[in-house]
Automatic annotation (TrEMBL):
Keywords: ATP-binding, Nucleotide-binding, Transport. This is Multidrug ABC transporter ATP-binding protein. GO terms for molecular function: ATP binding; ATP hydrolysis activity. SMART domains: AAA. It comes from Halovibrio salipaludis. PROSITE patterns: ABC_TRANSPORTER_1 (PS00211), ABC_TRANSPORTER_2 (PS50893). Signal peptide: none annotated. Residues 5-234 form the ABC transporter domain. Gene3D superfamilies: P-loop containing nucleotide triphosphate hydrolases (3.40.50.300). Pfam families: ABC_tran (PF00005).
Length: 307
């Protein structure tokens, strides 16, 4: 199956010589949730702006549903919805007028039934006649999505959808994104919240210094790059790791009450059995043990710092 969004050898260099994007290659599949992660200045906004027709690329090619974003501008733009971070204008306009105008901008025929469905699905129908200035922060966020969906796009970009919102609202946004996926919309989100990508995304893309560092299925990424730590709570504290255990690359907690053993989850042999035997031979006893696994944030930081 052809990807709904295809990016090939994309470059962007600004007039001052700054190269914001370098040879970006990426394919997004229909109906998936794709999270694009990267530090500030990594190129996320530039990439989205090019795909949405706001910024021109220096080189390369982008297609949406088979249409070229430059040659077939109208067809591609009508297939894309963009949800920015903030709603900044028209405080006295009503919710209904806002979404109706957004639909009209793309030359779509009037369809009040469709707009009603969008507003109902986003829990905004009861506020359809309210002015934007009267909406809560959560309602304004949902209105941004309603505006982007008004012209029935097949690809939706969410730029930092939960930046600066509380935990409860963030959870509500996650539920909204999942609903969009179930309705057939392909969702691409940029986020600084690692847990957001870990919660929602099917695949993770990491961009740094204008280059794609990695694209991977989230679960496979966690398995391939994740590590686990075995923490052993000691019966008697140690001042140092015994020489007999030097081969196991153990760590010792600051207070000496726990030994920490790190191992790769994909390794054929974890070495835990040998470690347990060596602990017994060294006369070290423990009262409890537990494991922890590296998070997506740990993996992301390793990728960015190492690229």
């Amino acid at each position: 199956m052809s990807p709904i969004l295809s990016i090939e050898n994309l470059d962007k260099t600004y007039p001052d010589g700054f190269q914001a994007l370098r040879n970006i290659n990426l394919a997004i599949h229909k109906g998936e949730i794709f999270a694009l992660l990267g530090p500030n200045g990594a190129g996320k906004t530039t990439l989205i702006s090019i795909i949405c027709g706001i910024v021109n690329a220096t080189g390369g090619r982008v297609t949406v549903d088979g249409y070229d974003i430059q040659r077939d501008y109208r067809q591609t733009r009508s297939r894309i919805g963009l949800v920015p971070q903030e709603l900044t204008r028209d405080a006295f306009e009503t919710v209904w007028d806002k979404v109706s105008f957004s639909r009209m901008l793309f030359g779509k025929p009037r369809d009040d039934a469709y707009l009603e469905k969008v507003l109902r699905d986003l829990s905004l129908w009861e506020k359809r006649n309210s002015q934007l200035r009267m909406l809560s922060g959560g309602m304004k966020r949902r209105l941004l999505i309603a505006k982007a969906l008004a012209h029935e796009p097949s690809v939706l970009f969410l730029d930092e959808p939960t930046a600066g919102v509380d935990v409860e609202l963030r959870q509500g946004m996650w539920e909204t994104v999942e609903y969009l996926r179930q309705s057939g919309v392909t969702v691409i989100l940029t986020t600084h919240y690692i847990e957001e990508a870990e919660e929602m995304a099917d695949r993770i893309g990491v961009i740094n210094q204008g280059e794609i560092v990695l694209v991977e299925d989230k679960k496979q990424l966690m398995r391939k790059l994740g590590t686990k730590q075995l923490v052993l709570q000691l019966r008697e504290s140690l001042e140092a790791i015994p020489a007999a255990l030097a081969d196991y690359d153990l760590g010792l907690s600051e207070d000496g009450s726990a030994l920490i053993y790190t191992y790769e989850t994909q390794s054929a042999r974890t070495g835990i059995d040998d470690l347990m035997q060596a602990l017994g031979e060294a006369g070290i006893r423990f009262t409890d043990l537990h494991t922890t696994q590296s998070s997506l944030e740990d993996i992301f930081l390793d990728l960015v710092n190492g690229s």
